[in-house]
Amino acid sequence: MASTADFKNGMCIEYNNDLYTIVSFQHVKPGKGPAFVRTKLKNVKTGKVIDNTFSSGTKITTARIERRPYQFLYKDDMGYHFMHTETYEQIPIDKGIISAYDLLKEGQNVEIVFHADTETPLECELPPFVELEITYTEPGLKGDTSSSTSLKPATVETGAQINVPLFVDTGNKIKIDTRTHSYAERVKN
């Protein structure tokens, strides 16, 4: 148990029978009446952000969450299978909790967030950038740049579609931002 005085950004709490992380909070002491804490809470499972106000001193149940290193092994009809990199324990995970499942490559290292009390996986996070090879893209025409941001569609080795600049060709390795699904840069061989 904790109180509103213990609030920190990133803290995970149980609220309305669900898990939320504190995105931001502000202690308010009006001239008249009791103090309160205005917060923005992000639902761990859905990602939805809500505003909520707690009376100052309210008791809150904190939730213990752990980040554990895993490696992606393979995908089948039971889900996506991961192996803990230290204990070699294998677990299947539903694609709904994976942040960018279409950019997962076999052998890719990820972090899986667990609710420590129930051992429930809450979220699977890829690193901010991944390097993937382009398996197919149309060839870019020389001089076909009407603007500096000309892009064309490309398919990477995981099957995901990414828009890339015209100078990128099939067989090139590119760095992709997993948070926005966008091209970051071409990787030098």
Description:
The chain has 189 residues and is an all-beta fold. It has three domains: 61 residues, SH3 type barrels (Roll), CATH 2.30.30; 61 residues, Nucleic acid-binding proteins (OB fold (Dihydrolipoamide Acetyltransferase, E2P), Beta Barrel), CATH 2.40.50; 58 residues, OB fold (Dihydrolipoamide Acetyltransferase, E2P) (Beta Barrel). It is built from no helices and 16 strands. A six-stranded antiparallel β-sheet has the order 1-6-2-3-4-5, with no helix packed on it. A five-stranded antiparallel β-sheet has the order 9-8-7-10-11, with no helix packed on it. It has a five-stranded antiparallel β-sheet with strand order 14-13-12-15-16, with no helix packed on it. It is elongated and about 70 Å long. The N and C termini lie far apart (53 Å). The mean pLDDT is 89.
The whole-angstrom Rg is 22 Å
Number of helices: 0
Report the end-to-end length measured between terminal Cα atoms. Answer: 53 Å
| Major β-sheet annotation | 6 strands, antiparallel
Which percent range describes the beta-strand content?
Answer: over 45%
Unreliable sequence segments: none
The gross shape turns out to be elongated
What's the number of structural domains? Answer: 3
The CATH C-level class name of the largest domain: Mainly Beta
The chain-level structural class is mainly beta
Query: Per CATH, what is the topology of the largest domain?
Result: SH3 type barrels
The strand line-up of the biggest sheet is: 1-6-2-3-4-5
* CATH architecture heading of the largest domain: Roll
Mean pLDDT: 89
Number of strands: 16
Helix content: under 10%
Q: What is the helix/strand order?
A: EEEEEEEEEEEEEEEE
